[in-house]
TrEMBL record:
Membrane topology reported for the UniProt record: Multi-pass membrane protein
Gene Ontology terms: cellular component: endoplasmic reticulum membrane
GO molecular function, one term: very-long-chain (3R)-3-hydroxyacyl-CoA dehydratase activity
UniProt name for this protein: Very-long-chain (3R)-3-hydroxyacyl-CoA dehydratase
Keyword Lyase: yes
Pathway connected to this protein: Lipid metabolism; fatty acid biosynthesis
Subcellular location: Endoplasmic reticulum membrane
InterPro entries: CS_dom, HSP20-like_chaperone, Tyr_Pase-like_PTPLA
Name of the encoding gene: HACD3
Record keywords, A-Z: Coiled coil, Endoplasmic reticulum, Fatty acid biosynthesis, Fatty acid metabolism, Lipid biosynthesis, Lipid metabolism, Lyase, Membrane, Transmembrane, Transmembrane helix
Coiled-coil stretches: none
Any Gene Ontology biological process: sphingolipid biosynthetic process
């Protein structure tokens, strides 16, 4: 019989190599790794050229373990090989030029960052499998912590819901006129909610939640700068329409975020709420940052004129440094913060739906 080469598809993880050989009804399989780190494959089966004997060899980029797991089905031969060292390979073979019969297996293909997220999700899944009883024994204050987090999220949900409903009702009754007194009608509740939000920076430091400290600090510090420094200290800003858009975008995001975390404290999930929590921020978060940027830009001439918060300078350098100069620097940092938090939230969303997809399958 003529010896032919089958089509081979490959993918990798940090610790494993996956090969899929397009050979149906394979028989007389002979698969092994030689001492020179080369995989030898030979089998009789039905491939692209019909019923023939097919073979190929691959010299791997780095050492692999000699043990091979393979499974032959009516359609293909699946091969799994463990790497000697768990690390990401730039390519599969030692030779830079890819063999003509080799192609990526897009059904299994992940890039390096996706593979790292998959590893992290697996670790989280292992942690979640620990029984509630054992966790209670290890942490006698678990119930107290959950109770605190539940109440915190409930209070924040009620506060932002009040702001959202109040602004919505006033918008329907007064129309555009409601834009100009948003601050006076909702500021007290917004002050309360944003002062409470400082706990979101403290909670990760105390180990109460797994959320990263840095993204939480960026959001809380950014919002409090807009609320207390821009709106709170400048009466000229308090009757401008930008206040309405900033408050409305903030509250719209939070009325879905806080109940999601609140239900997570008691092990409950609503699919629609989960989708809203991980999706609605995609358009609203950038819009919120744009509205905040507009507020900063509108406040610059006011700070220049009033010299409020100006920093005194030595006589040689001038009288004082206007606070607007600091705000211009903050304006640039605001969009850097947008990029950092957007990337963080997007990774959270991908990790969430990747782990849910695995559970379904």
């Amino acid at each position: 019989m003529q010896i032919l080469t089958p089509h081979v598809y490959w993918a990798q993880r940090h610790g494993e190599i996956y090969l899929r050989v397009e050979l149906s009804d394979a028989k007389n399989l002979d698969i092994n790794v030689q001492e020179n780190n080369t995989l030898q494959f030979r089998a009789l089966g039905h491939g692209a050229k019909g019923e023939h004997e097919y073979e190929f060899s691959l010299e791997f980029l780095e050492p692999v373990r000699p043990e091979i797991n393979h499974k032959s089905t009516q359609r293909q031969v699946d091969i799994k090989i463990k790497k000697q060292e768990e690390r990401w390979w730039d390519r599969l073979t030692l030779q830079e030029k890819k063999p003509v019969f080799l192609a990526p297996d897009f059904d299994r293909w992940l890039d390096e960052s996706d593979a790292e997220m998959e590893l992290q999700a697996k670790e989280e899944e292992k942690i979640n499998k620990i029984s509630v009883e054992s966790r209670v024994r290890k942490d006698p204050y678990l119930g107290l912590k959950r109770g605190y987090l539940f109440m915190y999220n409930l209070v924040q949900f009620l506060g932002f819901s009040w702001i959202f409903v109040n602004m919505t009702v006033r918008l329907f009754i007064l129309g555009q006129d409601s834009f100009y007194d948003t601050f006076h009608s909702t500021a007290d509740m917004m002050y309360f909610c944003q002062m409470m939000a400082v706990l979101e920076v403290v909670n990760p430091l105390l180990g109460l939640v797994k959320t990263g400290f840095f993204p939480a600090m960026i959001q809380v510090a950014g919002r409090n700068t807009i609320l207390f420094v821009i709106f709170g200290s400048l009466e000229e800003m308090q009757n401008r329409p930008v206040v309405f858009f900033v408050f409305y975008l903030w509250s719209t995001i939070e009325i879905f975020r806080y109940p999601f975390y609140m239900l997570a404290c008691i092990g409950t999930e609503w699919k629609l709420l989960t989708w809203l929590r991980y999706s609605i921020w995609i358009p609203l978060y950038p819009l919120g940052v744009i509205a905040e940027a507009v507020a900063v830009i509108q406040s610059l001439p006011i700070f220049d004129e009033t010299r409020l918060f100006s920093l005194p300078l030595p006589a040689v350098m001038g009288q004082s440094l206007s606070f607007s100069c600091i705000l211009q620097l903050y304006l640039a940092l605001m969009f850097l913060g947008l990029f950092i938090n957007f990337r963080h939230l997007y990774k959270q969303r991908r990790r969430r739906y990747r782990s849910r997809k695995r559970k379904v399958h």
